[in-house]
Amino acid sequence: MDSALIPEGAKRCSFPKFYMGIAVVGAVVLWGLLAWGLIYWKGLNQTNMNDYYGFALWIWADLAVIAVGGGAFFTGLLKYIFKIDELKNIINFAVIIGFICYSSALLILAIDIGQPLRGWFIFWHANVHSMLTEVAFCLSFYFAVLTIEFIPNILENRQANKVSFFHHLAHNMHGIMVIFAATGAALSFFHQGSLGGVAGVMFGRPFSFREHLNIWPYTFFLFTWSAAAFWPCFTLLVTKITETITGKKLVGDKTVHLLSKIAGWMITSYIIAKIIDTIYWATVTAPSLGFKWTHFYSNNALYGKWMLFTELILCGVLPGVLLIMKSTRENSKLRLLAIILGVIGVCLNRWVMVLQVMAVPVMPFDTWALYIPSWQEMATTILPVAYGIILIALTYRYLPVFPQEQELNYPVEEEAVDEPVVAPAAEPVAATE
Amino acid sequence: MKQEHNKAHKFGMVIDLDKCTGCGSCMVSCMSENNVPFKDDESDKKKSITWMRVYKLTNGKSFPDTEIVYMPRPCQHCGGKGDHGHSPCVSVCPATATDYGYDTGIVSQIYTRCFGCRYCMGACPYHARYFNWWDPKWPEGMEKYLSPDVSPRMRGIVEKCSFCYHRYQAARDQAYAEGDKDNIPEENYQTACTTACPAGAIVFGDLNNPEHKVHQIVKPDPHPDPRNKHVVGKSRNPKVFRLLERLGTNTKVYYLSDREWVRKQGDNYLEGEWDKIKNHHGDTSHG
Ligand code: SF4
Ligand code: SF4
After folding, report:
1. 3-class SS at B16?
2. A235 within 8 A of A94, measured Cβ to Cβ
3. What is the dihedral sign for C-alpha A11, A17, A22, A25?
4. Is B21 contained in some domain?
5. Which of A355, A379, B86, B286 is most buried by its number of CB atoms within 10 A?
6. Which residues of chain A make contact with B122, given a CB cutoff of 8 A?
7. Which residues line ligand 1 (CB under 6 A)?
């Protein structure tokens, strides 16, 4: 039914089967929209947040999707600026994942604020001292850049590409993509960092407060670094899931190994910095404010030292080492384990830097505060995931996302004898220049 | 209005914890003075709006040595590190919806500008900020008792103690009318909690004015603490302390107690540290 839209030469499942799947995920989207409606209608009393938990599940989700969605910016940086050409095989997908993550982050922020109609005040009455102001500006600009990076891929759709204007527009946009890659890299560096700064500048909260380098707390640099370290894990994980669902190999081993290697070195260097930061905080910063570091990990039901061990060692050092060593990196099972641990690790770090900060008592007579999100919070957090699945499904079906799909799945010798070799199913968008 | 530096006020209070009986009059008077709304269910205290909240502290000993103290906690009107006006909450608000008054030392909340991101709540270690999770509501008939001087707040924004700023405005207007705009007599500007406290535990006034009682009790040291350069305005009275002073929040609410265990509860100390630090309480920084 929709075969005219499907990239030439690509094999896709039948129309009814595809849309049955979309309908199932669509039901989850509807559930999320219902919760969203309730929240806008009745207010944030629909959540389980309270005056101790002004920041909770949503802010964590925001920080987490932005951390793992950093792939678009880093792939662009490595591909266009550092000229690592191999990444052309995954750049389209990285941009799509980035687009999903960043649009999700903006969506969650729009749900999270108490007076959504005043959201623009953050730009209009901007307080230049606030990390959140920097986040809002960079995030919005970067989302605009991502949209621009996504457009050429959309225009490569078989029907759209027949329109000469679109064809040339896509072509010309590739030509100037290096400018957007550079802009995106700068913007990303700052908003990833400012998100870390959000927690690091709170000098009333000794658990998250960090010493500063000039105006930036150490968390500023650690957040940028961790996003740069863990994005390949998430990109590879989503690729793996997509490959499993479609039953096809979509990205060549060489690219996968390269990304894994980048992740390995970046994670290891990040985790060394993070461990140094933690030791400094535990032995210098916290004691100078009257706290023994164990205060932050005891006398409550959830936050124990196991959390620190899981974040730093199990989901930090271990995936780093597994991805650095060639033998484990090229072993598909161990690699999968490492990338899953990596994604958990960075999400856990964001959790700790939001939720645990709120949980810890600061006044000596105060108590720990734990929190369980309401179904409305969960539904609106799952909403972007469902939306992401749908967007990936649609782009995979209708756009030439994976340049290697043809060669990896339908080698030329299998082509029907009476058919000339068709245009490759997936023109490498990034490689057309 | 920009005031000359030497004319700037610095309003603050000192609460005598040995006098406070925990009766809660300050909380009630604050709610009624400032149009704080009611909720159907006030049992979840983490969702109740209490600009002034009385905490109960104990010395942790069992009977018959148990001692209890009640600690009223309004917004501490922090001056931030070095007392430069970068309060934990003011410095983080992305929309400049909470502001530091350099002429008064009061941290304001601009209800019509706050868009409810709640970053300020996360930044405040005293839990002095409250979010309007619900639309404001009053039991029927009670709206008639709302104060016309204080705007009620809508759902979805943050509010907190303002040191009854409207009372300051009234006192200032009076001073203008009487032709001496720089002289606001102590008794002309007092917060609702101060006037309501039956035990007289709360003393409010201008910390910069040596004639005010609060200044005389607190004896604030204008110089930075040599042991922690972020701390300014430390009390030179050995019985007076501030909450979480070591963080460098530089609060304007001081507490007073004869009892050592009470003073110790004001901040966090490593093992053995209190014995060294307590001797410095009341020290002047410079001789
Ligand atoms: S007590 Fe909290 S709300 Fe009040 S000024 Fe200090 S940080 Fe801000
Ligand atoms: S909740 Fe309001 S006052 Fe607080 S930081 Fe956000 S905009 Fe500012």
Report:
1. strand
2. yes
3. negative
4. yes
5. A379
6. 54-55, 202, 205, 357-358
7. A 204; B 75-78, 87-89, 107, 124, 126, 128-129, 160, 249
Q: Among all residues of chain A, which has the CA nearest to that of B251?
A: A204
Is the Cβ–Cβ distance between A80 and A114 less than 8 Å?
Answer: no
Provide the H-helix boundaries in A352-400.
Answer: 357-359, 375-398
For the segment B142-160, the average pLDDT, to the nearest whole number, is 95
**Cα(A180)–Cα(A186) distance, integer angstroms:** 10
Greatest Cα-to-Cα distance within chain B, rounded to the nearest angstrom: 60
Copy the structure tokens of residue A179: 């400018």
**pLDDT of residue B221 exceeding 60:** yes
Within 10 angstroms of residue A74's Cβ, the number of other Cβ atoms is: 26
| Domain of B68, in residue numbers | 2-277
Compute the CA torsion angle A77, A82, A87, A93 (nearest 10 deg): 10
- A2-11, A261-270, A303-312, B48-57: which range is least confident on average? A2-11
- Total tally of structural domains belonging to chain B: 1
- Could you tell me which chain A residue has the CA closest to the CA of B110? A125
- For the domain that residue A236 is a member of, what is the CATH number? 1.20.1630.10
Average pLDDT, chain B: 92
The H or E element containing residue A256 is helix A253-280
Its domain, for residue A256, covers 3-405
Which pLDDT score, from 0 to 100, does residue B275 have?
A: 87
* Structural domain includes residue A84: yes
* Confidence bin at B280 (pLDDT 50/70/90): low
Q: Read off the pLDDT of each residue in A5-27 and give the average, rounded to a whole number.
A: 91
Name the pTM for this structure: 0.92
> Relative to the CA of B118, which ligand 2 atom is closest?
1
